[in-house]
Amino acid sequence: MDDLYREIIIEHYKNPGYRGMLDPHDISFEDENPLCGDHIRIDLRLDKDGKVSEAAFSGHGCAISQASADLLLESVIGKTLDEIKTIGRQDVLDNLGIEQLGPVRMKCALLSLKVLKAGAYGFGEASDQLVEEKKKGEAIDTTAYKYYEIAGVDEIPNGERIFLEIGSNQIVVFNLAGNFFAIGDVCTHDDGPLGDGELDGYEVICPRHGARFDVRNGKATALPAIIDTPSYPVRVSNGKIKIGIPE
Ligand code: FES
To answer: Is the model's pTM score more than 0.90?
Structure first.
C-alpha cells in the first residue's frame, strides 16, 4: 500500500464524514466480523425516487473496516438500492486504494459492504412498497410515528394475518404476496371487527354487512362504509416487521 492510500485510510478512520446514526431511517442493518469482533451498523434514508439521500455508520473496529465503511457510504449517496446491489468487492478495494489483502483483513474491508447489501436486499419488497408510497405522494412522515417491532417475517406466512393491540389501536397485519400491510381492525360502518373478513385481492370484506376496505391504505371502497379505517406504515428490516403508530 503506498503512502497516499495509507493516509486516506487513516484520515477516514480518524475523521469519518459519515459516522453516526439516522433516526428515523428507511433502512438499517448491522453485522459483525466474528474473526476480529469488528461491528458495523449502517442506516440509510431514501428520497422519493428511492435514492439514498443520507447515510451513516456506527460500530467499532480496525482502521480498515471503519475507513472502508466511511468511503463506501460516501459512494452510495444518490444511488438506488438496485445500484447498491451491484457494488462489488473490487469497488471497496478501489475506494481504499488496495489491490490485495490477507483473508482476515479482507473480511474487515468488506464488512461494511456485506452490511450495506444485506440491508438493500433485506429490505426487498418493503422498500419497493415504501418507494411507491413516496412516489404517489402518500409518503409516510416517519417523524410522526413511533415504530414497534411486532413479529418476524416468517411469523406471518403469505396469505395470513395477525391481530394486535398497540395502545388504543386495534390492528390487523396482512401478508399479501410478501408485502405486509397494517390497517385498523375496525369497520367504520358500525365499529365491527374487520380483520377476520374475507380477502378479495387487496380488499378485505367486513363480515357483518359487506363493506370493503383496501388493506394497502385503509380506504373504504364499498358501502355501507364511507369512512376510511386507519392505515399504519410498515417497515421490514433484519427479518423483523415494525408497525408505525402515530405519536
Ligand atoms: S360493521 Fe362492517 S359493514 Fe357494517
So the answer is: no
